[in-house]
From TrEMBL:
Family, per entry: Belongs to the UDP-glucose/GDP-mannose dehydrogenase family.
Domain UDP-glucose/GDP-mannose dehydrogenase C-terminal: 320-414
Classification via Pfam families: UDPG_MGDP_dh, UDPG_MGDP_dh_C, UDPG_MGDP_dh_N
Gene3D superfamilies attached to this UniProt entry: NAD(P)-binding Rossmann-like Domain (3.40.50.720)
EC number: 1.1.1.-
GO molecular function: NAD binding; oxidoreductase activity, acting on the CH-CH group of donors, NAD or NADP as acceptor; oxidoreductase activity, acting on the CH-OH group of donors, NAD or NADP as acceptor
Keyword annotations: NAD, Oxidoreductase
Protein name per the record: UDP-glucose/GDP-mannose dehydrogenase
Taxonomic source organism: Micromonospora lupini str. Lupac 08
Top enzyme class: oxidoreductase
GO biological process entries: polysaccharide biosynthetic process
Alphabetical list of SMART domains matching this protein: UDPG_MGDP_dh_C
Length: 420
């Protein structure tokens, strides 16, 4: 008997790890992506996702059971299809066009008894109200009944060596009990634990609760940090102390703002839907967005004040930014607050140099000079700014040679260090 055929639509941070895991579990996998360059690189064994080392991709290709492709015709005869395409915002509102295109693309290949699963983060109702009609009209089949349909939110945390796809519990749902059984059965082959919920809407909301919880708590700590600065209290020490309480407290740490494809975006999917369906504002989300958006400006102002105290102006100053990615140990610069900080400092007249070992050249913001983290660079800088605290940075070198460090991550200790 031939292996089951899985199609993963979207071969990015979410889709590629899923495809690799499925190959390892014995499935035949087509990795579909509209980005021809990405597909070409994957086919030649080049991984651009940090969590997928080249040798793991090489083994998948070598097994003959992983085929990256740009052609939806390669989906012909699939048993299971998982959609992992982007769900960004356009002018502040959800942009479901990628999910729609994926639905239209895969619809003609939907056949009786196959299973389609949406993983992209989205507002409750998307699977049944938006995706299902597209699949039904393209295939002439219905779900529930002819084919199976479900939603399973992604919990991938790029760069996290502890919690990987296989050991992070996976929430699963279906449009009926048969669909749920199919969706759950599929993921049970890939992950250690699945958690079934009653409906696709509950599963869709689960993901938004997780990200809204983080976004709101980060905003709370960020606001507290800005206020503590004026009160002259060390907020970092207070959080460390609060963390010793063994119940009822979860620590969140301040930072230069939120970035990436999740926290600045996903909660807006929820607030947009609440507004649309109920005509009401989701106040926590709006407030958290405002506070988190303020952070890059706060960082720029603090650096300006720090230079000023040393009798230097930000205009004409040479600044060395450590990290441009939104998250440590990754090269993901989507919506990175570090880029916002760099632009604000440039607008104030600073010459910005940056160390970003994970990013590719085309991602670097205009006017920013990429350099290595060397004694010479550190000495030449009027200020070193720790924006993204990659573990690979030599923080001892920084404190040994810097004149002034503005540290948004609390990684450096020394007399010349000012912490966010
Ligand atoms: N990156 C994360 O850490 C993370 C975590 C949890 C959830 N998510 C969610 O998962 C989804 C995917 O995110 P990602 O980070 O993997 O995005 P990504 O941009 O890394 O990858 C998405 C891929 O989909 C491709 N694509 C777009 N439209 C397509 C189409 N019609 N057909 C085929 N391929 C298409 C793109 O070319 C891209 O390569 C989003 O909804 C995101 O919110 C992401």
């Amino acid at each position: 008997m031939s292996a089951e055929k899985l199609v993963v639509i979207g071969q990015g941070y979410v889709g590629l790890p899923l495809a690799m895991r499925a190959v390892e579990a014995g499935l035949d996998v087509v990795g579909l992506d509209v980005d021809a360059d990405r597909v070409k690189r994957l086919a030649s064994g080049e991984s651009f996702v940090e969590d997928i080392p080249t040798d793991r991709l090489g083994r998948a290709l070598g097994s003959g059971r992983y085929r990256p492709s740009t052609e939806y015709t390669d989906a012909e005869g699939f048993d299971i299809c998982v959609i992992t395409v982007p769900t960004p915002l356009r002018d502040g509102t959800p942009d479901l066009s990628f999910v729609e295109q994926a639905g239209v693309g895969i619809g003609p290949y939907v056949r009786p008894d196959c299973t389609v699963i949406l993983e992209s983060t989205t507002y409750p109702g998307t699977t049944e109200e938006l995706l299902r009609p597209l699949l039904e009209s393209a295939s002439g089949l219905t779900s529930p009944g002819d084919f199976h349909l479900g939603y399973s939110p992604e919990r991938i945390d790029p760069g996290n060596p502890t919690w990987r796809l296989e050991n992070t519990p996976k929430v699963v749902s279906g449009v009926d009990s048969v669909s749920l059984a199919r969706v759950q059965g599929f993921y049970q082959r890939l992950v250690e634990r699945t958690v079934a919920v009653d409906s696709t809407r509950v599963a869709e909301l689960t993901k938004l609760i997780e990200n809204t919880f983080r976004q709101v708590n980060i905003a709370l700590i960020n606001e507290l940090t800005m206020l503590s600065h004026h009160l002259d209290i060390d907020v970092w020490q207070a959080i460390d102390a609060a963390e010793t309480k063994p119940f009822g407290f979860l620590p969140f740490r301040p930072g230069p703002g939120v970035g990436g494809h999740c926290l600045p975006i996903d909660p807006c999917y929820l607030s947009w839907q609440v507004k649309r369906r109920l005509g009401r504002q989701f106040r926590f989300i709006e407030l958290a967005n405002d506070i988190n958006h303020e952070m890059p400006e706060h960082v720029a102002q603090r650096i300006m004040a720090g230079l000023n105290r040393a009798g230097r102006a930000v205009s004409g100053a040479r600044l060395l930014l450590l990290g441009l990615a939104y998250k440590k140990n990754t090269g993901d610069m989507r919506d990175s607050p570090a880029v916002d900080v760099a632009r604000r400092l440039q607008a104030l007249g600073a010459e910005v140099h940056a160390v970003e070992p994970y990013a590719e050249a085309h991602q670097i913001p205009a006017g920013v000079t990429v350099v290595g983290l060397t004694e010479r660079e550190v000495r030449a800088a009027d200020a070193v700014v720790v924006v993204t605290d990659h573990d690979s940075f030599d923080y001892d070198l920084v404190v040994r040679h810097a004149r002034y460090v503005f540290d948004t991550r609390n990684r450096c200790v020394g007399e010349m260090v000012e912490t966010l």
